[in-house]
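Handoff note, outgoing to incoming analyst
You'll be picking up this chain. Sequence as last confirmed:
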Amino acid sequence: MRRGIKGLALLAALPLALAACSSGGDSTESSPVPTNPADVSGTVVFWDTSDSTNEAPTFKELIKKFEAEYPNVTVDYQNVPFSEAQNKYKTAAQADNAPDVLRAEVAWTPEFASLGYLLPLTGTSLDTPDAYLPTPWSSNVYEDVVYGVPQVTDAPGLLYNKELLDKAGVEAPKTWDDVQVASEKLDVDGLYSATGGYFTLPYIYSFGGNTVDPNEQKILINDPESVAGFQKALDLIDSGAAVKPDPNDAYNQQMAMFKEGKVAMIINGPWSVADILTGKAFKGNEDNLGVTTTPAGPDGQQGSPVGGHNYVISAGTQNQGASEAFVSFMNSPTSQAFVASELGLLPTQTAAYDEPEVQSNKFVQAFKPIVESATPRAWIPEGGQFFTAMDEEWINMYTGKATAQEGADAIAKAWTEFLPDYSD
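Most recent structure output, in case you need it:
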């Protein structure tokens, strides 16, 4: 049964409510973590859902540092493909075989909490909302109880090849109409965007649309504003200003074309920077990579969806003390600054932004205002299910099997199956 839906979407905008979360709801009575690292012992099974090639080595390096500081704790590291992790974790939790610690996508946290799979962290050593940026922290709170801590935060921006735009004599587009104009002047394809449902959200938000309204329990994805966002994405494709996505492997095709300099612009987030800098167009020339906000709609409205990942501890853990110590170490300001310097990922701890390597990282600094102006998503248990129908219907739209309105209506219909109390 869905519980506590109303008001959850307001959490991201209510820092005072977030600060109060440390005293509300169920809690773990006290932190079991000893002061001396040598007194902490056990094995922590950690499921890391980061990219195994570009991101995982950095987290493995942090784990080595943790084990050096905590000599009696062993980390059983397992890299789980992100696309498989959500269902794999639910299966493991149902079988009482979940990992001690999971790197969860932000939308998974309220879902897993509602199912009873996560350890409540209110009152533990990890319950420190004042140390974090309010919006990333908000995805970890369900029914006034803390169930995780934000590892990284992000939001997509417009990434562009400076040399290609300079050669065409155009600036980075500020609106979707600017994308059209710029693409007509380029020697290569202009924009590769909207590779899936998540990446259609900047279009939808820029036209005043949204996914759902938890307070009114209403589905908004097929409202006129949201449909107008879908239609703009289709219009750019139909005009040739944007590449028609590959229905089988759009994201990887997008990345390959951008890295090779065959497309001038993409919509992507800070997680993609490390991979992009390995491409021919940017390797040894990272100054060629430009980052700015996603284009605005007709009324100047702009917005990217808040994303990121949280560290959560499974309710069935037999190693709570070691798990808390592990999460605390991996998520410290120093560790977050290290991750930012290596991968360009944005910290969630406010103190991390005072670290020299964060202040000097131009990509972190470029994405920071994008995240600060991003649109909070609805932190409801069902939020993690939104993109299945969005991905499918977006393909139907751009392949001509459905109009923007028909596709949006199909998404809304699919959502009513797991949001029975919502109207569209």
